[in-house]
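Predict the holo structure. Ligand: NAI.
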Amino acid sequence: MDFTELDTRGLVLLGCGKMGGAMLAGWLDRGLSASAVTVIDPNPSDWLTGTGVALNTPLPPSPAVALIAVKPQMMGAALPALQSLTDTLFVTVAAGTPLSAYAAAFGASARVVRAMPNTPAAVGRGITAIIGNAAATPADLDLAQGMLAAVGEVVRLDTEDQMDAVTGLSGSGPAYVFHVIETMAAAGVAQGLSPDLALQLARATVAGAGALAMTGEDPGQLRVNVTSPNGTTQAGLEVLMKELPDLMTRTVAAAADRSRELRG
Ligand SMILES: NC(=O)C1=CN([C@@H]2O[C@H](COP(=O)(O)OP(=O)(O)OC[C@H]3O[C@@H](n4cnc5c(N)ncnc54)[C@H](O)[C@@H]3O)[C@@H](O)[C@H]2O)C=CC1
Ligand SMILES: O=C(O)[C@@H]1CCC=N1
C-alpha cells in the first residue's frame, strides 16, 4: 500500500480498541507514519500510547480517512467528534450500524465505506468485506480497499444486507476458531496430555490446517486426504460430522441475527 495520501493529509481513528488497534498495528508495521495518525479514545491502551500517534489532540481539518471503530452502542455519543471534518472518507467497521446512520450524522453527501474486518488483520491475515454508500466514489472504494488490503484480503459486497451474514461468518469467525483450539486442547488433556503440550498441538494443528486450506485445495478433499478408510480420523469424524454442521449453522445464524438486531 502506498500510504502517501494518508501520510500527507492524515488518518483519524475514532476508537482504537481491539479492532481499531489490530488494523492500526498492521498499517504501522507496513509503513504508515505514526505522526500522520490522530486517535480519539477516552481509554487508550498502553500499546497505543507507545506508538507515537497523536492521542486525543485536536483533529486535522481534512484528513484523508476517518476510521470509525467504536462499539455500535457508543456511536451516538462518539460520532459528533468527527462532524467538523471536511472532504474526508469515513470508513466504519462497526457491526450492525447501517450506512444510513452515518448519513444521519454527517449529511447525505458524506462519503462512507462500511467494512467488516476481523482481528487477524493485526498479523496481515485479515479478511474484510466492504460496501460504499451512494456518495462514495470508485476512488473512495479503491482507497478503502487499498488500506484494508494492507492487512489482509478484501471482498466487495453487492448489497448492504450481506453484511450481517459476513459479520456472523468472518467478523466473528476468529472467535469460533480460537474456541476450537481451546476445546481441542482440553480434549487432548482429557486423553492424558499435559495442558502445555495439548495447547501446542492444537494451536499448530489449526494454524497448519489453515495454511494448507489457503493453498486453494478444496477443503473437503483436504479432509479426505487425512482420512484413512476405517482409520482414526474416520472414527473421530463420525462423531464430529453428526453435530458440527448443524451447530455451525446455528452459530453463524445467531451472530448474523445479532448483527441485524444492532441496526436498531
Ligand atoms: N473485535 C473484533 O473482532 C471486531 C470488531 N468489529 C467492530 O469494531 C468496533 C470496535 O470493537 P472492538 O475493537 O472489539 O471494541 P473495543 O471495546 O476493544 O474498542 C472500542 C474502543 O472505543 C473506545 N471508545 C469508547 N467510547 C468512545 C468515544 N466516545 N469516542 C472514541 N472512542 C471511544 C473505547 O475506549 C475502546 O478503546 C465495534 O463496532 C465492532 O462491532 C468489527 C469486526 C471485528
Ligand atoms: O462481537 C462483535 O460484535 C464484533 C463484530 C464482529 C466481531 N466482533
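The chain has two domains: 4-163, 173-262. Residues 92 and 230 are 50 Å apart (CA to CA).
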